[in-house]
Amino acid sequence: MLTYKAMYKYLDEGVHAELLDFPGVISCGENIEEARRLLASALVDMAETNLLNGEPLPLPDPTITDFDADLEEPVHLFLKATSRVILTPHEAIP
């Protein structure tokens, strides 16, 4: 499990959300619940993209902070390795 730090900023249009220690993980929502949900989805998408491209995930930095944030909280990323095997019947091979 990796624990990143999220920041939220309340705006007139909704809530801006981003992970301070995972560049590119940014989202927004109409309210804090939607912003959290969309930020979590963005984190999964970015983590999967990094791994598929052979890039490491950024290391969490628990000391990072944004003094302009209205709220900061931890976001936990649980990684699960899977594998898949596709069997092609011998008769199907040309």
Our count of helices gives 1
Ranges where pLDDT stays below 50 over 5 or more residues in a row are none
What is the CATH-assigned architecture? 2-Layer Sandwich
Spatial order of the strands in the main sheet? 3-2-1-4
Mean pLDDT: 92
Question: How many individual β-strands?
Answer: 4
Span between N and C termini?
Answer: 44 Å
Largest sheet: 4 strands, antiparallel
Helix-residue proportion: 10-25%
What are the main properties of this structure?
94 residues; single chain; 22% helix
Could you characterize the architecture of this molecule?
The protein has 94 residues and is α+β, with helices and mostly antiparallel strands. The chain has one domain (2-92): 2-Layer Sandwich (Double Stranded RNA Binding Domain). It contains one helix and four strands; from the N terminus they run E-E-E-H-E. It has one helix spanning 32-52, and strands at residues 2-11, 14-19, 26-29, 71-77. Strands 3-2-1-4 form a four-stranded antiparallel beta sheet, with helices on one face. The radius of gyration is 18 Å and the shape is elongated. The mean pLDDT is 92.
Question: How does the SSE layout of this entry go?
Answer:
Blueprint: E1 2-11, E2 14-19, E3 26-29, H1 32-52, E4 71-77
Antiparallel strand pairs: 1-2, 1-4, 2-3
Describe the structure concisely for a colleague.
With 94 residues, the protein is an alpha+beta fold. It has one helix spanning 32-52; strands spanning 2-11, 14-19, 26-29, 71-77. A 4-stranded antiparallel β-sheet has the order 3-2-1-4, with helices on one face.
